[in-house]
Records
---
Amino acid sequence: MVKLTFIQPDGASQTVEVEPGLTVMEAAKLNDVPGIEAECGGACACATCHVYIEPAWVEKTGKPADIEEDMLDFAFDVRKESRLSCQIKVTPDLDGLTMRVPTKQF
Amino acid sequence: MALDEASQATDAGVTEIDAVIIGAGPVGLFAVFELGLVDVKSLVIDILGKPGGQCSELYPEKPIYDIPALPTVTGQELTDRLMEQIKPFGASFVFGERVDELQRSEDGRFHLKTDAGREILAKVVVIAAGGGSFTPKRPPLDGIEAYEGTSVHYAVRRMEELRGKDVLIVGGGDSALDWTLNLAPIAKSLTLLHRRDEFRGAPHSVEQMRALVAEGKVRLVIGQMTQLHGENGTLEAVTVKTGDGEQRVTANAMLPFFGLTMKLGPVATWGLNLNENLILVDTEKFETSEKGIFAIGDINWYPGKLKLILSGFHEAALMAQQAHKYVHPNKKLLFQYTTSSSSLQKKLGVK
């Protein structure tokens, strides 16, 4: 199992445990993490599963692909550490991954 | 968009039809087929400019793996194949319009009105509106609602209204680029704001935009909006966060292009029983709390509901049985298979 931590805008933190192979978005939805909407169901088509990766983890989660970068144009308050969580696969390497949920997903 | 032979317009300009299907996604399209088999003529209305709904708008290139007998099919292929399959039934299509009003008229039929003022009289209504109507995303900036319709526009209805204005266009796709090119000659000033110096739009449009920037006719700012300034619904300026800090962009008209999202929209006002934004139906006829109005596909709810395209197809077939009773009250419906029934084959144009 891999541990993932989601920090809400008010500072509340929630750590979930999931099997590798899911996406981070799916892990959030399975555990009812607030603020991850995923309107399109993980097709990289809506930008409503936007998260900010904690700086220490940016390298391990990697850079967004072109299609994800394009879709980030539809997100609000996009930063260097912005990712769409449906595009991050949970691997054992990401055990401990910490990210912040934006104030609003559009 | 023009209608074809399936519908008839009365003298008053009202279109008359057996069934109106709201939503041209896969389930709405297949409803044309099932209704067609039982001699119910359909008119399909969709807010998007083309058929397919989410399949063509959100994931045209993504494979779908759970359509029976199609091990893999993309959203666009599924749409194209459904359009081919329903062709024999000569349905009418209205694209780019939203049904705003739905009321029962005195003769028992339903009277519908679209946002373009089109009026339709139908014996039955099939709501196959999926996640709701696609509407432009509203940037989550404090107080933006107050400027909508006056200074903030999600679509340009009349270009002339923007003549002589300080226009701010936000976004990096084709809508943002096309309106930049179209409005630059008539605006007092035009600023294009995008979060990065890369644009998704057509390369030719990007080149044209860059040329206008080089000539000083368009100002390109790389950054993101953080705050709106203005009074009484009139925008004056927008604070923008850029790589070098904050700046204030003067603007009395703003066009934000951040894609589309799905909202239930006017359906919520039609007096149907809802369950958390979904329309309650029975599982025999998929009829709503209002007789003659059906809801199929992702927009309905019943115990055990799964939002699958294949479930929507099943719902369309059962809905059509009941719709037939309303449209042809004096005709007995004989259950038949397309494989063996010569009358069904005649309707399909294969005999």
---
Amino acid sequence: MSFLQLTQGPLWYLASAVFVIGVAWRLIGLLRLGRGPDRSVARRSGVAGALKAIALHSVPHGGNLKRTIYHFVTGYGFHLGLFTLLFFAAPHVAFIKGLTGLSWTPLPRWGFLIAAEAAFAGLILMWLRRMTDPVMRRLSDADDHIATWLVFIVMLTGCLALQEAHDSLRALHLLCVEALMIYFPFSRLMHAFTFLVARAYTGATYGRRGVTP
Amino acid sequence: MKDLAETPPRKIDTQAAIDRFLAACNSHVGAYLDACIHCGQCSQACHFHEATQDPKYTPALKLQPMTRVYKRHKAPLSGIKRMFGLVPPELTAEYLQETEELIFQSCTMCGRCTEVCPMAIDVASVVALSRQAFVAAGLGPADLLQAAENSRDKGSPLGLTPEVLRDRIEWLSDDNEVEIPLDRDKAEVLVTVSSIEMMKYPDSIVAVARLMNAAGLDWTISTKGYEATNFGVLSGRSDIAKTMITRLTDAAESVGAKLLVIPECGHAYGAMRWSGANILGRPLPFEVLHITELVAKLIRDGKLKLKQAAESVTYHDPCQVSRRGGATGAAREILAAYSSDVREMTPSGNHNWCCGGGGGVQAMASAAALRHAVFQIKINQVEATGAKTFVSACANCRLTMDESREVLHWPREVQSLVEVLADRLEG
């Protein structure tokens, strides 16, 4: 079995299983912790509050944009770039088609370049901020740096493998992706899912009070 | 700030803190602790960070004591992570002492950080639960805890016993020629008081009485349950929190009240309106309104007639009434009836800056210097409006601001919204 076959076969299935089971385990485990009923008389709907909070916390509000503009620009640059690459880079579209049979129009090369530049710039700028800003330095731990570097390496190897000129580069990219997938459920990368739960809980609590925090 | 290390050594029960943290880790709290991405944006919304620019006051750091316990003992997959040594270290007495200031002196539980958090983490609720764990361990500021014990033993944090309440109501009633009903057998409305008002700002009580009488309400104050402030909630003493809620509930039930009115006190409103039924373990059999909500309703219903003033006024929103209470609009309705020149601070309403003394911080002598530093934000806000009159609807905010303005030599008066309103009553 070649290195590429290993990363496309057994390692891929192992990483996928860890990712799916791990994420599900964490989310179900979190929800199973439960919470007591809120016996206060609601002023407004908690469900509407949850939905509003999920939407509203995607953008700065409450007059805070100026204060958080760096995070807003770099955060959106990175996340939009990353998800555009993940779902619309030509090799990924082909990979998804191979897995699921589903297919859609991939990004043209210029689109790929813009998305990649936004993702790299956002990630690097966020990490620089983490290393230099006194608040972020104080908050950051090993998980923050490991997650950042893993994502960076995955994106870098992805770019190297773009031309599909060398199997070893594709295999290296896949290996890095698999490492990220295995690390994901154990790490703060889980915020990709838990952000919905946190926003919904706060939104529901304050929505009942007639406030959208 | 007073050096916390100067306090005498305390016996710290770390296991009690761990147990309390674990009991508090429900799905709600777990979601918050899992979702924090350490971006630090919350620091931009915190008045303690704003006033000092010290990163140690970053709200996300206040999650960390509970996060340690949750991620070590209770978080899903923590068992596997523990096998590889990837969980946080166990809580220690030293760590609890190091983080004590974050949980008590430097958090007013104002909720401003939640607004800016991309995950919408409600840091204030985690701090409230964390206080319970710290207190279980034997930590927490002595003066805050004493205020809670005074509430349990004497009826109020400031020594407002039922006898003192009776005496002061008699005095206020006589001196101001206003009827203040006390211990009526039956009444539609039970009015509660804040001992801060009764002991330091008694004119507020008179003003409330004038408004209630002018509207023709069937009301009373009760010596069975009168203290609206709840230092049990603020100090992390859940047993005392329940005692205070039970007293008010029993008093309201005994007079058959359909409405319980919370005076000008922010946290008292949150404690009774939003936490009361949950602390008590059953729904409250009466409606709870903040005094501003009631007065706004009375104005709306035409039961209070006011002579509108022309002088400019600005309003400080108590965090627990507005941002965390949802009664932001009530004060605006009152202000519109009071003056034709209402000048909002920037920011105001649900986005206001805290006075610096909420969450029991007002009662902590060790937090005084920090509070005063924070008050400069409010001074700047008020001055920018150019308004002549500066009002609020929380006696705790008022006391905090009065103390700080004296220290900072700011020559403005902080007035009570109900007091200025009562002065504008027609007839």
